[in-house]
Amino acid sequence: MTPAIGAATRIPRDSHSVSRKNISDNALKVIHRLRSKGHQALLVGGAVRDLLLGNQPKDFDVATDATPEKVHSLFGNSRIIGRRFRIVHVRFGRELIEVTTFRGHHDASDERQDSSQGSHHSTQGVLLRDNVFGSLEEDAIRRDFTVNALYYNVDDFSLFDHVDGLVDLQQRQLRIIGDAEQRYREDPVRMLRAIRFSAKLDFSIVPGTAAPIAELAYLLEAIPPARLFDEMLKLFMTGCALRTFRLLCDHGLIEHLFPATATAMDDMPYARALIEAAMDSTDTRVAEDKPITPAFLFAALLWPPTVQLQRQLEDRGVPSAEALSEAGNTITSEQVHHLSIPRRFSHAMFEIWSLQSQLQTRTGRGSQALMRLRRFRAAYDFLLLREQSGEDLDGLGKVWTKLQQELPAAAVKTEAETGARRRGRRHYPSRKPR
Ligand code: ATP
Ligand code: MG
Known about the structure:
Shape: elongated
Bound molecules: adenosine-5'-triphosphate, magnesium ion
Number of strands: 12
């Protein structure tokens, strides 16, 4: 079912709050260049939405009728990226302007016509390629949510609204464009985007857009793990991880992103509290502009199932450190079939885990050496979260807080500061018992 293209509403400059001076000069440069060559080019997507909400846009997206090849030929500093969805990145120093060619309509039921025209659906209705180009009107209804389908025209500073996005924006609600089920089947990541925008913008999701999510959540299983990792960064690393996590649980999505975690959350009383504490602390660090790493979140998300399995192995007589290592490896290798974990992050995650037992045993003479380790701080923070979420660790957090306070600052130079090369040395349990 294809939504009919409604008449565009044109909202003149004095009836909306987007001000040209808040738009990136580089985005304007791209738009003007395309227009000077006779093309249509407008600002679209998150930037228009965020400007209307009075927020600073994260990045600027431009929509045009020029093909990706044409856009690329106009900008030396550009690259065509993507296969499923080809777009052009125009780079200006650290800023990237994303230029997309207007998407056109294609019919999921007509496979033959699809592939000849540049789009391709799987038998489940997943949009494997979406490179059929079209008009501005068609482009608007191919976008995900109505509030993401507003266009800003630099020519006369007006907005184009084909999908009543402005009303939804004013009512602070997310509404998918067209038939929700079909749009989620085409691209299941749209379910995650609904959650992300709802959390980030503090928007409600209208019932028709929210309702099918729980039932279709399983479709995420077909999404490449690397794409889900990219989405996870956007979900959890941009300042509203806690709210996002709760919504992912409420809508039945978490079990398709982190299945072992979801099972452990049902079985272990402190599991959810630990993960939420890690999300909350990540949000606080983002707000304070402190560095954050996905490794810490992975450590929290996968700790409950890992500990659960570790205990089972210990019950079978496997020594504790080896059991942790084996459990961690098993849980991690299952996890990466769903949502991948780049090796550098899984490595750091294992370091944080392995330090947990060292923090329990080395409060005496070895404590200074431990405090100098690169991952000590993260491991100590993790320990505090474990206690905070209800694990009884016999006041270990306080012991380490005190040990750090007692130490003169000069003595806690970290590995990085002393330049010590310890790369070869592992701080996570080896597979074999020592
Ligand atoms: P932000 O950049 O703030 O996270 P955004 O809305 O700009 O939010 P992008 O991922 O940059 O999100 O995408 C730009 C625009 O492209 C969106 O606003 C939307 O119109 C469209 N879009 C992105 N992903 C999809 C998708 N999976 N399906 C349909 N349209 C999409
Ligand atoms: Mg964007």
